[in-house]
């Protein structure tokens, strides 16, 4: 084999081994978590315009409504929303303001046949801060052709601007029957973007900053009051201390690194040692199968042997997954 071809082959083999050695024995988990803040029974909601001095509150409430309608549990819509036209009709006829919704919520609820009213306040603030960044320019090189070396450079500065946007949302969910606010908190989102004159900065804050902040705030609001899908990465524990057949354990870890999780779990399940790592790994396998009860037992036993943060996170996750939605 020619020297160049052999060198390339060895380099490719070394790179493959390096990538494999850096891989982690991890798996992806996807499951539905219950609402973070409000877990009551309100399902039929009237979304009223959000008050705002700096944004279109009606447009914001429309975006909230659109996301609420997307929430589904077991293939069925989680919420039922009162139509925008019906809300506008009632508001125009009775001349309600958002500030008086709590006191008049029972009356409004009867008129709209709603269980809850979702409204709030949304405001945005923007700022632009000028600053300068250092650059380097090569003024003298050595060498020729494609291979040149800079031997002398000079510093210079360019004008830049930092655009910052802050979006504050204070949602309020009112139980119309009780006339009480059952959910409300501050949701604050900050987005920034830097532009320099040598990279073509614009004269105003990009609209995508507001879009990103709005989408993130609404997502957080929805997850506060509705079940939501969560995607996490869980890692098998690579610690063969106390394992009789360490070669078999290491083989399972290598299979997990290759993405052959089913084969890895088959090996873990065949091993009977009661080490924290093996108990945790078997628990993770049971969680992947959907047996949350057995996974919880194995995680708890593993945690009794060692207070590892990965086991602690698994116990928290299992607790959330086992709660009723």
Description:
By secondary structure, this protein is of the alpha+beta class. Helix content is 42%, strand content 30%. Strands 2, 5, 6, 7, 8 and 9 form a six-stranded mixed sheet that branches. A two-stranded antiparallel sheet has the order 1-10. Mean pLDDT is 88; it is low at 3-20.
Summarize the structure.
By secondary structure, this protein is an alpha+beta fold. Helices cover 42% and strands 30% of the residues. Mean pLDDT is 88; it is low at 3-20.
Compressed to H and E, one letter per element, the order equals HEEHEEEHHEEEEHEHHHHH
Average pLDDT metric? 88
| CATH secondary-structure class of the domain at 36-121 and 171-189 and 206-227 | Alpha Beta
**CATH 4th-level superfamily of the domain at 36-121 and 171-189 and 206-227:** ABC-type transport auxiliary lipoprotein component
Q: Identify the overall geometry.
A: flat
Oligomeric state of shown chains: single chain
Low-confidence stretches: 3-20
The CATH architecture assignment of the domain at 36-121 and 171-189 and 206-227 turns out to be: 3-Layer(aba) Sandwich
* Strands, count: 10
- Approximately how much helix is present in the residues? 40-55%
How does the helix and strand content classify structurally? alpha+beta
Number of helices: 10
Q: What proportion of the residues form beta strands (DSSP E)?
A: 25-35%
CATH topology of the domain at 36-121 and 171-189 and 206-227: Rossmann fold
Write the SSE topology.
Layout: H1 3-22, E1 26-33, E2 44-47, H2 57-70, E3 72-73, E4 76-77, E5 80-81, H3 84-94, H4 105-112, E6 116-144, E7 147-175, E8 180-184, E9 187-196, H5 207-225, E10 228-235, H6 246-257, H7 261-270, H8 276-289, H9 292-305, H10 309-322
Parallel strand pairs: 2-5, 2-6
Antiparallel strand pairs: 1-10, 3-4, 6-7, 7-8, 7-9
């Amino acid at each position: 084999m020619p020297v160049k071809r052999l060198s390339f082959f060895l380099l490719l083999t070394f790179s493959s081994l390096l990538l494999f050695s850096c891989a982690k024995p991890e798996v992806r988990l996807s499951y539905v978590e219950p609402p973070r803040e409000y877990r009551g029974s309100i399902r039929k909601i009237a979304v009223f315009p959000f008050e705002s001095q700096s944004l279109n509150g009606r447009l914001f409430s429309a975006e909230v409504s659109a996301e609420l309608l997307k929430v589904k549990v077991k293939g069925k819509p989680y919420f039922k929303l009162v139509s925008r036209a019906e809300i506008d009709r009632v508001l125009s006829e009775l001349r309600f303001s958002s500030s008086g919704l709590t006191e008049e919520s029972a009356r409004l609820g009867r008129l709209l046949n709603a269980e809850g009213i979702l409204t709030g306040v949304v405001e945005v603030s923007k700022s632009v801060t000028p600053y300068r960044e250092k650059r380097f320019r090569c003024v003298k090189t050595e060498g020729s052709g494609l291979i040149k070396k800079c031997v002398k450079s000079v510093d210079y500065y360019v004008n830049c601007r930092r655009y910052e946007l802050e979006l504050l949302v204070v949602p309020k969910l009112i139980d119309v029957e009780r006339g009480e606010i059952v959910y409300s908190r501050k949701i604050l989102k900050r987005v920034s973007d830097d532009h320099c004159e040598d990279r073509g900065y614009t004269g105003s804050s990009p609209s995508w900053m507001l879009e990103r902040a709005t989408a993130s705030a609404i997502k957080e609001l929805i997850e506060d009051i509705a079940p939501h899908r969560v995607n996490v990465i869980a890692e098998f524990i690579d610690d063969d201390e106390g394992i009789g057949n360490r070669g078999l354990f290491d083989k399972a870890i290598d299979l997990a690194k290759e993405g052959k999780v089913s084969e890895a779990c088959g090996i873990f399940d065949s091993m009977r040692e009661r080490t924290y790592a093996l108990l945790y790994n078997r628990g993770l396998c049971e969680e992947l199968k959907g047996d949350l009860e057995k996974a919880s037992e194995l995680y708890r036993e593993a945690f009794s042997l060692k207070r590892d943060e990965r086991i602690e996170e698994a116990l928290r996750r299992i607790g959330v997954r086992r709660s009723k939605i």
